[in-house]
Specification:
The complex is a heterodimer of chains A (308) and B (240). Chain A has helices spanning 51-58, 82-85, 101-112, 116-125, 141-153, 171-186, 198-204, 222-227, 240-249, 268-278, 292-307, and strands at 13-22, 25-35, 40-44, 66-71, 86-89, 159-163, 190-194, 207-212, 215-221, 231-237, 254-255, 262-265, 282-289. With 308 residues, chain A is of the alpha/beta class. In chain A, helix 3 (101-112) packs across helix 4 (116-125). Chain B is elongated. The chains are: A alpha/beta (308), B mainly alpha (240). The A-B interface holds A 56, 59-63, 76-77, 79, 82-83, 86, 88, 90-91, 94-100, 103, 106-108, 110-113, 151 and B 3-4, 6-7, 10-11, 14-17, 72-73, 76-78, 80-88, 237, 239-240.
Chain lengths: 308, 240
Amino acid sequence: MFKNSTPDDGPVIVADGLTKRYGHATVVDGLSFQIRPGRVTGFLGPNGAGKTQTIKMILGLVRPSAGTATIEGVPLSAHRDPARVVGCVLDGGAFSPGRRARRALRITARVAGVPFSRVDQLIDLVGLGEDADRKVGDYSLGMRQRLALAQGLLADPAVLIADEPANGLDPAGISWMRELLRELAARGMTILLSSHLLSEAERLVDDVIVIASGRLITHGSLHDLRASGRREVLVDAADRATLAAELRAHGMTVTANGSGPIRVSGEAARVGEVTAQAGIPLLKLEQTEEGLEELFLKLTDRQSEVQR
Amino acid sequence: MRNLIRAELDKLRTLRSTWIVLAICAVLTPGLAALILGTHKRLQDVPSLISNGTFALSALLAGILCATTFANEYKDRTIATAFVLTPARSRVVIAKAIAAVIAGLLLAIVATAVCYALTALWLNGSNVSWPWTGRQLLHAVAGNLALGMALPLAGVGIAASTQSPGVAGTVVGVTWVGVSNVLSAVFTFFRHYGIGAAQSALTQPTGHHYYEFLGALAVTLGVSALALCAGMRRAQLTDV
């Protein structure tokens, strides 16, 4: 399904017909997608769309009612050393509140067969050096998220799956996490992250999977998704009426409200060419495209209408 | 598996509740032993009475500790991390069970050593000889240790089944009371010697007592093993 995928970079995570039912309610409905290696994939959808359930099915924490999920070709349970295959950030950083942070990571390190020196290294990496010997119960949500990220990275896994990792982080923390995840992806780590912070996801992800009501709406590269959205040019001149008339005369769709720049469907280069030929001096010429948020709302609204 | 067990022991060691239970045991078991020694007239019967009361109490506390500690992992949602790192969930539960057995055993050893040492000193000070032979003492200690391991084992199983700390702790207590009542109804020796008969039966080793002791021990360990198996099954089937 990914337009840029090649046989050399086969999918790392494959969901095939994943379905989860609780009684008569279907929370995930025949979800199929593939995630390519070394990419940051945003898993997007409104609240209750089934993102967390899907992530938990991939991790083997929730049993699918139907379908399969594999990581590197097999279910996570079939891997000899799961800690080195996948790391996860779940539930807003779930830790025993009475345990000190460093101790909590050391316990995980012991299970994963990782030396304690790696714990100290990661504590420094996530910026918790000064607070590592405090109890996790005294941590803010943002600090727990950082700790959870450190825990997820302990065994240097090939895949990182994070459910809303930016929750509770302040703007500086979000920026820090973005840089870190980008760096990890650049080193070849495959990252799947769910987020409701669309503007943030837009700045981080390479690929997107959009779901609503447990069903797949779209998936592919962010670039392709954006390209499928509406592109407009904001153009302004001292004589707006002449400008609008000239653009219409060249078959362009023009929206002018009289008090601001004119909106023209299409490409800035073409608009510039037309206005230059007509000798109209421009005050503004700006290419705009639909952001992820607009595209997301459009896609999920369309899904709601289909269901109605 | 060794790493898993060590991690589970680390979890127990790094929780405040473990140390609180240890402190309660450190105060309560010798305190109860001293109370029995100070109030009971027939000092020869005291070792049996101590076995009946104090060791059952320390084993029960160990069982409740292990049950609530494990069930708290469901409450705090840390169990998800454990199951991602070790997708074979039965291995996680078995590691917890082994750690619980080790913890229960250590607690039982400390409680037994402290209480019997206190009793021996008291009897010696009162010019009363220790009423048991070496073999009888060995049997009684074996019974204490078996109970000290069985209840934490059951605690892990019950925690995996209930997945709620409050419910798990209560069920461990209620189950033990229920089991001991059933044993009392079935075995006359239990009726006469109470909850700790499994330990003290061998101190009066007639054939009848011997088989009743073994029966009681088998029931106690069997119920614990059953609780563990049920917990393992539930852990495997539950979405977390």
